[in-house]
Every structure is written in structure tokens, then in C-alpha cells.
């Protein structure tokens, strides 16, 4: 008996040592926001409970799950998740509930973010609905003056190895999800919903970040579904439904004279329904050292989209105080392949490129865009490239 017990004991130790040697054995600590004072009643502000749970999680070596059970949680101000001093190997924020913003838009509006993650690594946000209740701020903006800019619902900064999966984001005051100076980020199965007329409610904004994947997302918003800012490298977008909204945009670029380029962007299997644009690259008419290089638009369906394919190097909304220079952004090596559907305007393909730096190596193939069952048109200036096979409308090269 004693022999067999100690045998089992030693056997377990040996297994544990072997498994941790191969990195397969890790303890997992479970935390629950309710034990940090969060109240799933939609009334008591649970912001502090979230940051307290995070601090505790950070102090745990190994893996930690922060559970947010079903229910509605009022989160009345910015929650900062900071990772610089975290000891944990991995933190999973598992949300089964709905997080709701405060009724008074000024409380969130004066903050830059609602949920901000800075310097975090190996973090997963799994599930959850984030309802920022942005509409009162939008009506303030529609009526005029003295409105705060608003908070981005979820922002990741200086972070790596992050997964955002199964999240629903509703009615953000400003951007829904923003990624700044990050690497290795996966955004999957998210739903983003805001009305067509809600200002600056971009779905996903990415900049200065490398190795980003966005997969299977449904984005309905009042601004860009996905906006791809300077310094975005190795971005893969696969399986996106967009609309209402302004489409998928690389840009705006040339905001600054010194600016990082955008390279290696692939957008596969996108569906655009009644959006203002489909696949767009835009830059201000300003000198800049930025560039766009190796972009692949592969497979898109356009349903009544105002500008299905657009390169606009004279971007200046409202035409007020435009820089009026030749855009310095060099756009090179862009493929448009397998793009079908309907345009809501006669000009389905528009490329208005910089005179100083014409767009080069633009390739089009398997394109069929129509205008109310009629032929559509192209409008191209300062573009060179080639077309292969069916390209309707054609006329750019
Ligand atoms: C992040 O997770 C990976 C894979 O699970 C692991 O190898 C790595 O050590 C973790 N990084 C840190 C800083 O804990
Ligand atoms: C895509 O995401 C939705 C949630 O937005 C999910 O219900 C669906 O199962 C996902 N599809 C795939 C193929 O993963
Ligand atoms: C972009 O892709 C090219 C060609 O595959 C590769 O050489 C380059 O290193 C990539 N850029 C980055 C920043 O990884
Ligand atoms: C297409 O969209 C325009 C507005 O952009 C709208 O006026 C028109 O009715 C739509 N047509 C169809 C067929 O949906
Ligand atoms: C282009 O698409 C239209 C509308 O879907 C279709 O009627 C037409 O046959 C297509 N043209 C070609 C050459 O495939
Ligand atoms: C750019 O386009 C303009 C307008 O079509 C044309 O006058 C000019 O010659 C073009 N410049 C170059 C460098 O192709």
C-alpha cells in the first residue's frame, strides 16, 4: 500500500516535470469579477472591479482567466489594462455579459478610450458585448458645439500576441476597435454595429502595427469598416461583411510629411452592401515620404456601392483648407482580382493618382461591375499597370 502510494506520487511528479519541460503543463487560475465587487445589475459602476481583477491577474504567474458572468455591467469610465509589469503567461478575459457605458456621454466622452490595453502580451478577449451608448454624443455633435470628441471602445497599444474573438461592439462613441503599435493581433468572429449616420465610428482601425489578422467580421457603421493607417504591415483580412459604412480604406495617408508606409495588405472575400466605397486607398494632397506597396484585393462582392474601386490621392473632405500639393504617397503593386457586383454611380473604377508619383504596377483581373444593369465607367489619371481577362468596365490601361 505504502509502496503503491509513493509510487503514484513519484509517478505524478515525474509526469509533471516532463510535461512542464515540454511546456504542456500549466496551472490555470480562475478569477471572477463578481468577487472584485462587479454587479451584474446594470446600475452599480463596475469599472473598478474590472481594473482590480486585472491587477490581481497580472500578479499571477502562469495562465489566468478573468470570468465575467452573464448580466449587464455598468462601466462608467475608462478601464486601463496595463501589461508592462504583468507576470502572467497569459490572461483570458472571458466575457459572457454585456458591458454598458454610462447614460451621460460626457463621462466617457472626455476619455480617449473606454477599455484601453497598453503594453499587454498574450491576452485574449473572448466574447462579450460592449455597448458604449454613443447616440447621445452623436446628437450633441449633430447639434453643434462643445461636445467632447468621444472614446474609442477598445484600444490596444504597444501590445503583442492578442486575440479578440466573438466580441460584439455596439454604438461606440468614436472608433470601435483600434490597434496602435502592436504586433501579432488576431481579430475573429466580431460583430460591430452602429447606425449609418453615426460620426467617426470606424469599425476597426489599425496603424503602426505588424502581423494583423481580421477574420469573419460583420461590420455595420457610420464610417470606415476597416481603416488601415500608416505603418500597417502584413495585414490579412478574410471574410468581412461591410455595410452600411464607408468600406475598407487604406488611409487617410499623407497626413504628415514623415510617415511610415503600408505594405503587404491582403483583403480576401469581402462583401460590401450599400457602402459609400468598396476597396479604397486615399491620401491627402500633401508631400510625404509614405507609400503603399503590395496590396491584394482578392474576391469581393459589391452590392450597390457608390465607389467600388477607388484610389483617391486628392482626398480632402469638405474641400476646406486642402494642402493642394501633389500627394507624395507612392502606390505600387496593387492587385484587384475577382470583383463583381453593382455600382451605385456610373464611375465604378476611379483612380485619381498623384501626378508626381503616378500609381504603378496596378493589376486588374476578373472584374465585372455594372451600373443598374447598364455598363459602368472608369476614370483613371496617372496610373500604369495591366489587365488580364475580363475587366468591366475597362479603360484604365
Ligand atoms: C506567451 O505565450 C506563448 C505561447 O503560449 C509562450 O510561449 C510565451 O512564453 C508567452 N509569453 C510570455 C511573455 O509569457
Ligand atoms: C463568424 O462569426 C459569427 C459571429 O459574428 C459566428 O456566429 C460564426 O459562427 C462565425 N463563422 C465562422 C465560419 O467561424
Ligand atoms: C512584405 O512581403 C514581402 C514579400 O513577401 C517581404 O519580403 C517583406 O519582408 C514583407 N514585409 C514585412 C514588413 O514583413
Ligand atoms: C442604390 O443606392 C442608392 C443610394 O446610394 C439608392 O438611391 C438606390 O435606390 C439604391 N439602388 C438599389 C437598387 O438598391
Ligand atoms: C457581368 O455581370 C452582369 C450582371 O451580373 C451579367 O449580366 C453579365 O453577363 C456579366 N458579364 C460577363 C461578361 O460575365
Ligand atoms: C497626370 O495626369 C494629368 C491629367 O490627366 C496629365 O495632364 C499628366 O500628364 C499626367 N502626368 C503623368 C506624369 O503621367
From TrEMBL:
Pfam families named among the record's database cross-references: Glyco_hydro_28
SUPFAM superfamilies: Pectin lyase-like
Segments traversing the membrane: 7-25
Gene Ontology molecular functions: hydrolase activity, hydrolyzing O-glycosyl compounds
Localization, UniProt: Secreted, Cell wall
Keyword Aminoacyl-tRNA synthetase attributed: no
Keywords: Cell wall, Cell wall biogenesis/degradation, Glycosidase, Hydrolase, Membrane, Secreted, Transmembrane, Transmembrane helix
Active-site residues, Swiss-Prot/TrEMBL: 246
InterPro entries named in the record: Glyco_hydro_28, PbH1, Pectin_lyas_fold, Pectin_lyase_fold/virulence
Record carries keyword Magnesium: no
GO BP term, example: cell wall organization
PANTHER family: PTHR31375
Membership in a protein family: Belongs to the glycosyl hydrolase 28 family.
Name under which the protein is recorded: Polygalacturonase
